[in-house]
Write a structure and sequence with these properties.
The protein has 16 helices and ten strands. It has a single domain, classed as Glycosidases (TIM Barrel), CATH 3.20.20. The chain has 391 residues and is α/β, with parallel strands linked by helices. 42% of the residues lie in helices and 15% in strands. The N terminus is likely disordered. The chain binds ligand 9MR. Ligand 9MR binds next to loops.
């Protein structure tokens, strides 16, 4: 009898911490945003402005507002969208997202200042037909960065200053190199210039280099290891006192590939951290091949994909949690209904890449990353460091 009472009292005492309003605390009912905050970690999503503004899609808006503490414009802060014709700016959709974030007390990742894709045609065709000279192009880039960063100064926590500047081993030539429009027309010094111009326009935003396939180190040879190439680049930029603050690892994974384990990814984040840089996962999604059986609804083919996807989302999140300089974890869209994947990969078709299904129901991946946030804590998972923007 006495033993029973003691056991009951002990269980009750454990259950009271941290109770709210007489109810035991149930972390599974908390949002990803809230659970991330326990670690000082921002949980973000890319936002499709058309979906956000679609009155027939209230769930989209609600989930963006409630589950996430950070937002990124999936497209509307890209140059072609901001300045579709020369000198005429279209700020509307980008401003709307920044206002939305403010109302919902979210931070904003700025994406993207310098990239070879989604450039306005007036710019690329001007360069192609010789009417825009090299000198003028450099000046246009300076003006673009200055104008955009100044407009959102104080409202953007992290800017992707440079995106995807490094080639891949499957490119020609296969030896890794600076690729694309900007390297071709301005030479690789545009990278240092861009960071300096961005810093001049916003003293506080954290300035990032952002790329895919840099989740883990490989051979260690910058000729074929993209992570190593980016690491060497960052180290050189720092030695030249270029104001780069962080490395954004996009995290576009696929369940058909080998992928990584948590310790491997954490080691890469730590290595960047040891340079004095912060890190972030900026565009996480984990796609799968949609075989005929998957498309026909065969659970035996769907379930392993959902599980593998969840596991990969979790690997990146746990690695981030384990490294204090990893400040945010952003998914590239949260619902399969609005994912870039199906329209980009069709041979074979791919999809199932996000954490909610097409009906906005949370998938295995959602619950898995939620449990990572719940079960992480000291001594191995500590609050994030306070970042200091480099001058
Ligand atoms: O998700 C974006 C998609 O809607 C656009 O059509 C595409 C155009 O290039 O860009 C996608 O976002 C990319 C991001 O800006 C940079 N990293 C890769 C992302 C997926 O392609």
């Amino acid at each position: 009898m006495t033993v029973g009472v003691v056991a009951f009292a002990t269980a009750a005492a454990l259950n009271t911490v941290p109770a709210t309003a007489g109810k035991p605390y149930d972390p599974t009912t908390q949002s990803l945003a809230k659970l991330g905050l326990r670690h000082g970690l921002q949980i973000g999503t890319a936002v499709d402005m058309a979906a956000l503004n679609d009155a027939s899609e209230p769930q989209y808006r609600k989930i963006v507002a409630t589950e996430f503490s950070s937002v990124t414009a999936e497209n509307v802060m890209k140059w072609e969208s901001l300045e579709p014709t020369r000198g005429n700016y279209n700020w509307g959709p980008a401003d709307q997202l920044v206002d939305f974030a403010k109302r919902n007390r979210q931070s904003v990742r700025g994406h993207v200042l310098v990239w070879q894709n989604q450039l306005p045609t007036w710019l690329t065709s001007g360069v192609a037909d010789g009417s825009i000279s090299r000198q003028e192009l450099r000046e246009l880039l300076r003006k673009h960065i200055t104008t955009v960063v100044s407009r959102y100064q104080g409202k953007i926590s992290q800017w992707d200053v440079i995106n995807e500047a490094v080639s891949d081993p499957w490119d020609n030539p296969p030896t890794l190199h600076y690729k694309g429009f900007w390297a071709q027309h301005l030479g690789p010094d545009y990278i240092a210039d861009a960071f300096r111009w961005a810093r001049a326009a916003d003293p506080k935003a954290l300035l990032f280099y952002n790329d895919y396939n840099i989740e883990a180190f490989g051979s260690g040879d910058p000729a074929d290891d993209k992570t190593q190439f980016v690491y060497d680049m960052a180290k050189r930029l720092l030695a030249q006192r270029v104001p780069i603050d962080g490395i954004g690892s996009q995290g576009h994974l696929g369940t058909q590939y080998g992928n990584y384990d948590t310790l491997q990814v954490a080691a890469a984040l730590k290595k960047f951290g040891a340079l004095g840089l912060v890190t972030a996962f900026t565009e996480v999604d984990v796609r799968s091949q949609l075989t005929e059986a998957v498309q026909a609804g065969d659970e035996a083919e769907i379930n392993p994909r959902l599980q593998a996807s969840a596991a990969n989302f979790s690997v990146l999140l746990k690695a981030c949690l384990a490294v204090r300089s990893c400040l945010s974890y952003t998914v590239w869209g949260f619902s399969d209904k609005y994912s870039w994947v199906p329209s980009w990969f069709n041979d074979p078709p791919e999809g199932l890449a996000t954490i909610y299904d097409e009906n906005f129901q949370p998938k295995r991946a959602y619950y898995e990353i939620k449990s990572d946030l719940i079960f992480a804590g000291p001594p191995y998972v500590l609050p994030r460091i306070a970042p200091k923007p480099r001058r």
